[in-house]
Amino acid sequence: MDRELVRTLHRRTRLPHRACHAALVEGLGDVELALVWLREQGHLANRNWLWEQGDLGPDAFCELRVTQAVDLRDVVAAIAPLGMTRVDDPGPMTSGFRAPVATARDLWLDRASALTLTANRRGEAGASLWGYASISVSRERLWLENGFGYAPPECVAAQVDVLAAVARRCGAAVASWSVEYGGQGYTIQRVAGGRTARSLADYVGFPLVG
Which pTM value belongs to this model? Predict the structure, then answer.
């Protein structure tokens, strides 16, 4: 089997080279057919965007950007992420992984963090938000961020639902995406990225047709 095809499939799936070789044999040397076979066999199922975190750091971050006039806020609001609460008046986009962006955005937090944030704003509590799961979205930019290793299954599933919805709705408008890890005492590491909806779907493990 052509080594470049194996490397290409490995880059798109992050599966071991041996598994990629076997898939290409089943797909008669065609990368797309090999991907179909991998999905049918369940090798790309039950992933999520955090599957490479390991010991790379307690904080996880995913950014997706689009190029044309598709308002990502509408895409996210349409699916109303389960297990997440929309926060009123969230202010500019902020993250430990990026410089602040002064743009209108919607912010969704896991329910416990949303309650804590609301209480803090009212002066009813002084708790810090260390562990949280969030979805922050402006017109052309989507950020997912989980702090301090906090990743409730229902929130991670909601985040994957958002990625899948954006990839399916925006398609060719997807300009770039990346997954990064870091945190206090850790160097920020970008472990994956791409410039197409297809590469994102392959990495996370969802079908582009839902």
Answer: 0.80
Residue linked to tokens 């997807």: 174
Distance of alpha carbon 202 from alpha carbon 132, whole angstroms: 26
∠ CA 178-181-184 to the nearest 5 degrees?
145
CA 106 to chain centre: 16
> From first to last of its 210 residues, what are the pLDDT tens digits of the chain?
788 999 888 877 778 888 899 999 999 898 878 887 887 787 766 578 998 888 899 999 999 999 877 899 999 999 889 889 999 888 899 998 999 998 999 999 999 899 888 887 777 666 677 899 999 999 999 999 999 989 999 999 999 999 999 999 999 999 999 999 999 899 999 999 999 999 999 889 888 875
Helix 197-204, helix 3-13: angle, nearest 10: 80
CB contact at 8 A, 197 and 168: yes
Q: Where are the alpha helices (DSSP H) in the chain?
A: 3-13, 17-26, 31-40, 72-79, 111-122, 153-170, 197-204
Residue 194 near residue 176 (C-beta atoms within 8 A): yes
Of 152, 151, 150, 148, whose CA–CA distance to 185 is shortest? 148
Return the closest-CA partner of residue 45 out of 191, 160, 170, 171: 160
Q: Is 52 exposed, middle or buried (0-12, 13-18, 19+ CB in 10 A)?
A: middle
